[in-house]
Write a structure and sequence with these properties.
Serine Threonine Protein Phosphatase 5, Tetratricopeptide repeat, single chain, mainly alpha, globular, 9 helices
Length: about 180
Amino acid sequence: MKFHFTHRSVTRILATVSLFLASSTLRADVPIPNDKSSPAEMRIYGDALYFGQGMTLDRASGLRWLKRAADKGDARAFTLLGDASLDEGNQAQSLEFYLTASAKEDGVGSVNAGRLLNDGNGAARDIIRANKLYETGLKMCLKQAKLGDARAMNTIGRVYENGLSGICVAQMRGICMH
């Protein structure tokens, strides 16, 4: 029996696997951080609490830990705060968090900021700025993916498969292939 895989099917499989890994990681063994914990430990704990990953859902406590991690400079914490703001329907605040994450070199935050600006959510529509955020975000995601970042891998897979509004799929694939 032979299997034929196209680029589309492979990227769909990779995106699905990385999304599964990113969302199903059990966090029950994550110790409760304290003020001396690293920003990454605070972010992981806040993420697990806010999104209910492997522990009881507690959005208020999760937000507190994500804010503490962000206050200590954790770039991905800003992206997660952007996700939380988007969940609550606050697109303007979400965009601010994503732009801060992008400035701190979090690729996922940069791509998310690009999506909001491209669609005119949270600010006036700005396709040129959105395209710049997409390109920089993808380049950052590639670096982060090489370090094992499942969320960056998922972002690359989604973009590679679907392209992004306002920028052609071929251009995105060109960025991803370098």
